[in-house]
Amino acid sequence: MFTQPDYAALFAASPYPYLLINRDFTIIGANPAYLESTGRTAQQIVGQHIFEAFPADPNDPASTNVDEVRRSIEQAFATKQPHTSALLRYAVPRETPGGHVFGERYWSAIHTPVFDAAGEVAFVAQNAIDVTDLYRFDAASGAYHLRHGAHAVPDMPQMTRPQMHEAMTRILSLERSQLQTMFNQAPSFIAVLTGLDHVFEMANEAYYQLVGRRELIGKPLLEALPELAAQGVRRVFDGVFAGGKPVVLRDSLISLQRRPDGALEQRYVDLLCQPIFGHDGQVTGIFAQGSDVTEAYHAAQALFEKVQQLEEVRENQTFQLTLADRIRQLADPDDVTEAACELLGRALQASRVLYAQIDDDAGTVAIVRDWTAQGVASLAGKVMVMDDFGPPMIAALRAGQTVVNHDVAQDSRTARNTGVYAQIGVGADLLVPYIKAGKMRVVLTVQNAAPRRWREAEIRMAQETAERTWSAVEAARAHAALRRERDQSQSIFDSMGEGFAVLDKDWTILRMNAEGLRLTQRRAEDVIGHSHWEVWPELRATPADAVFRRVMSTGAPGILELAHRMPDGRQAWIETRTHRSLDGGIAFFFRDVTERREAQEQLTAADRRKDEFLAMLAHELRNPLAPIGAAADLLQRARLDEAQVRKTSQIIGRQVRHMTSLVDDLLDVSRVTRGLVALHTERLDIRHIVNDAIEQVTPLIHARRHHLALELPPQAPLVEGDHKRLVQVLANLLSNAAKYTPEGGHITLSTEVHAMHVLLRVADDGIGMAPELVARAFELFSQAERSSDRSLGGLGLGLALVKSLVGLHHGSVACESAGQGKGSTFTVCLPRLDSEAEAAGAPAASPVGAPAPSDHLRIMVVDDNVDAATMLALLLEANGHEVRVEHAALPALAAAEHAAPHVYLLDIGLPDIDGIELARRLRARANAQRAVLVAITGYGQEQDRARTAAAGFNHHLVKPVDMQKLYAILDEVVPAHT
After folding, report:
1. pLDDT given for residue 158 in this prediction
2. pLDDT score of 193
3. What is the 3-state secondary structure (H, E, C) of 109-132?
């Protein structure tokens, strides 16, 4: 006979504790195992709300995880699926002789929905297993930890072992799920490969993003990624597997077929291959971890190319100035060409440089003089047939084209004439022709013994040298002709491109050509026949007076550049070359060199700003590298819990975003200044632009407690432009105002509407600008003087970008300041759409090995970069030292009075007093005279090291800190026992 099962008896007899809860959280039942585990009776809890029967401890609410239990029960009702809380903390109240107390308890619970006949959830059964004997809770970290020796709990009844097994299964399942989630969500790509064929066992999401969606797991490396076969990757993995040593690759280029049937894509990666060892100590697999650094690599290359271009321009300008200074002192045309050949040959490190005289009618080339490198034969005095060098090349020269020949044997214009090139030892050449009156007269030729790829900068240098030399040679020939034939025709005299004057020995002006009269802004009747000192009395007792008298007295030529006020009030620089004439007077050539002097001054200023920018850029990039390096070192050498890993990752993330912002600024200004930015124009309400810009800078304004006033017109003026770029312009100006105004300052943003244009004006009462800075405020890399703490930041790119973007909108931008400390005003002028248009269109790391532990030291870290200071302190504490961190100098001085550290690690740029002064004050104290002072700074030039040594520092380390060097310094410190 079939007997209906007695579920109530089964419920009561179950060794597993069960509690039954209905939808309003009322306890409707509990089996004896549950009552026994909680120390309660059915009469005490059945019919009560669960959180009244098991309330939170009012003295320690965190010990009773009410919220998690409530969420788990609600989820079981809502989803109709069991929900597990693998491990939770829930203290249970109990009565003791001393009164009502809460006992610390840990549970592994699962809430299972129980259905009625209609298929709806009638109630939820809670199966809660007490795991208090196995786990403890660390309040400081907020994490659960397995108790020491928990694998052998002596008092566990045999009947509870299945329950413990169930609880441990739940907990391990949760932890495995969490680890799998962390593995898949890791920002670096990770893969685990096993065996000699490197079979994929695991790969995270970032790895699939790198190689593309394809089958990896269970396949050998080259079967899964066959395109790597010829790229040496298998050789690297084989080496790690065989040698048992990790391998690190930086900026390694690989080609991947990331899409089926797609082309190979080049990617640059940083890769760490770490061997995995089995229980027997043998390598069983490889742990591969890395990052796709393609974008960062290309950004670095773009920056390098930009700096290289600037350097090439500077070198060319310096060379041209040197050439001009050299040849302007020469009177013989052959001396001029010889000097130019020598300077150009040495600058380009060529084999031979020459000026070939061309007889186009005869088809010959005559070489008068040349310059050759050591060991290269001279061609001076030789006459050759032009067509022997290749008729196509000669035709290009006759057409006035510069001929660039990287390899005479491969160039189609010269490949059939390699014999003549071999005879004179030429593998590559560069030729610049000079055409006059439709005929080729001279060719500047730069030759190299071996094939050579001529760079654009070298080609430009040769072309500019040729142009300058042609002019100098012609001038030298004219000067020589004038000295030989003083009575030649006036037409030739006046056709000269320079001023020329002749004075007799009594200083009477006998002649002056038309160019001279134009340069001096005089009429012939006001000059000819008059005394030089009557026409230009202001030149008495000047260097010009001294040169003229010395030439007249000694006959030695004299050269002078003199600043002179012209009749129209313009300040000009005049160069004079003076010679003694046959009758004892003087003749001098003169020309206006104002543009050249200004160009030279601008080049010097630009070179200085470039050097300052590069030094400052290196410093700005080193700052975020310090906490990144420290974080990487900590991750490599310490066993971290999840909270520490998250904190370290957040620090790395913040600093990487800061570096990315710096690189983005560089790329943005490069694209805009080179005209590579396309504007997406539309009709825009100026008020929307203002609102969006203010939204971007509001956090900075609030942080510095500024007062922002808005003065906007009632009408809604329209402009046509790119909304994103105009917001960028206005946000940049507001950000500058906020940064360069002391805290609590005032900033005003006003708008003026005119018939044809709209003015946006940003004014502040900040540090202001000196007149010289106002004049160059919008130049690239221009920036106000930087304080040692770099608190204002920036790369000097913002205003240059503003000017370029406003120019693209057919507008203008201007700045003004009453002087330092008197604030600044920036005004943007944009074309306004006409009123009809407005009405119609108004818008609605490398791992660092752990050092051997040094003696316990008291160390003080002083750095205003909170992330850098925190990471350095964590590393030092992990090595057993006692570390105190301060973020300013004055609090550090106060703390040092009592702490008496053995070692001080001091940043130089601090917000109150700098690290140099802090070191001096520490050295003046008796308790710090034997301490070791280490400067930690982004500045590493010799003068910086000299300053820190003079201030009393024992060591000077450059950010990011080389931790091995710092550990070595600390190992040498013998702590004084105090």
Report:
1. 42
2. 93
3. EEEEEEECCCCCEEEEEEEEEECC
What local confidence, expressed as pLDDT, does residue 567 receive?
A: 87
Asked if 759 contacts 821 with a C-beta cutoff of 8 angstroms, the reply is no
Q: pLDDT value at position 161? A: 55
Computed from CA positions of residues 367, 368, 374, 376, in that sequence, does the dihedral angle turn out positive or negative? positive
pLDDT of residue 595: 85
**Apex 23 CA angle, 20 and 25, nearest 5:** 65
Tokens of 879: 């090595």
Closest CA to 428 of 400, 459, 401: 459
pTM: 0.33
Q: Record the tokens describing residue 495, joined without a space.
A: 């056709």
Q: Which tokens is 948 given?
A: 């820190």
What pLDDT, on the 0 to 100 scale, is given for residue 837?
52
Residues 110 and 81: their CA atoms lie apart, in Å, by 10
- Report the C-alpha gap between 842 and 862 in whole angstroms: 56
Cis peptide before 960 (omega within 30 of 0): yes
Compute the half-sphere exposure of residue 179: CA atoms within 13 Å on the CB side of its CA.
8
Q: How many C-alpha atoms does 942 have within 13 Å on its Cβ side?
A: 0
Torsion sign over Cα 225, 226, 229, 231: negative
Please classify residue 412 by burial: count the beta carbons closer than 10 Å to its beta carbon, then call 0-12 exposed, 13-18 middle and 19+ buried: exposed
At 748 the pLDDT is 92
pLDDT value of residue 602 = 76
Nearest to 90 by CA among 55, 58, 124, 125: 55
Taking the C-alpha atoms of residue 203 and residue 807, their distance in angstroms, rounded to an integer, is 50
Look at the block and give the residue holding tokens 């009453």: 818
| Spans of the chain below 50 pLDDT | 1, 149-159, 786-791, 842-854
Q: How far is CA 226 from the centre of its chain?
A: 36
Residue with tokens 């609600």: 74
Q: Could you give the C-alpha distances from 578 to 516, 556, 561, in angstroms and in order?
A: 14, 9, 11
pLDDT digits (tens, 9 = 90+) for 93-107: 877 777 778 878 888
Return the structure tokens found at 868.
């850098």
